[in-house]
Amino acid sequence: MFLALNDSEHGERAEKGGLSSVAYEAIMRMILARELSGGDIIQERRLADELDMSRTPVREALRRLEAEGWLVRLNARTIGVKKIAINEYVAALQVRELLEPEAASLAATKCGTPMINEWAKKLDAIRYSKQAGLKQQWEFDQTLHMGIAQATGNEVLFKIISELRKTTQIFENQTLPARSFPGYDAHLAIIEAIVTGDSDKARQAMRLHLRETRKNIFEAI
After folding, report:
1. Which ranges of 110-154 would DSSP assign to H, the alpha helix?
2. What is the largest CA-CA distance in the chain?
3. Can you give the pLDDT at residue 118?
């Protein structure tokens, strides 16, 4: 289960957004990491114990997650993790296929960014590491896709892609068994195109990657 943050981590994040923001990020990570699945009942006291927090910031975080639609009210006193419907998943995928190739193209115009140049090294480390499991592989996938969105410098685009990826990942978590890393070669093609500043290749590589991912998902459903 999710490990509690240590005191220094609490302090650093509390200064930036308060403990409720720390709790929000931690609970969302638990949902995305399959530690809380679609339909699971949320137990406020248990979460507070696991996060080593009082119940107040956890309660505030749960209210925010409910307001954003990631948690749903089951009755007057009970909330649970939202189950993503397939039509919502398909819609999110369609918009991702419109936005993320353009994000990759924009990121390629900023190929000198140090963060971008580190991606290939991290991908190689995962590929050849005997210790890297599915969690580390999927963390890289998240880092890459969100890093590309961040590299565009467009905050609105970053936020939209982030929300769309949450929708698709939660659906995949609640519908499919844990699966293997989604394509070393596809990720490498995206990275190489961005690092070399080739906007057209970056756009095409991302489009192909997302279409292949969609194909694989629908074959598995």
Report:
1. 114-128, 134-151
2. 55
3. 80
Which positions ≥6 away from 164 have C-beta within 8 Å?
A: 92, 95, 96, 99
Q: What is the pLDDT of residue 136?
A: 72
Do residues 92 and 190 touch, judged by C-beta distance below 8 A? no
| Structure token pair of residue 208 | 């192909």
Query: What is the rounded distance in angstroms from the CA atom of residue 68 to the CA atom of residue 176?
Result: 24
Cα 115–chain centre separation? 18
What is the per-residue pLDDT across 169-211, written as a single tens digit (0 to 9) for each?
888 888 876 655 557 788 889 999 998 999 999 999 999 999 9
Task: Write down the residue that tokens 């190489």 correspond to.
Answer: 192
Q: How far apart are CA 196 and CA 205, in angstroms?
A: 13
- C-alpha dist (Å) from residue 100 to 31, 164, 207: 23, 10, 8
The Cα–Cα gap between 54 and 63 comes to 15
- The dihedral region occupied by 183, where left means phi > 0, alpha psi between -120 and 50, and beta the remainder, is left
pLDDT at position 202 is: 96
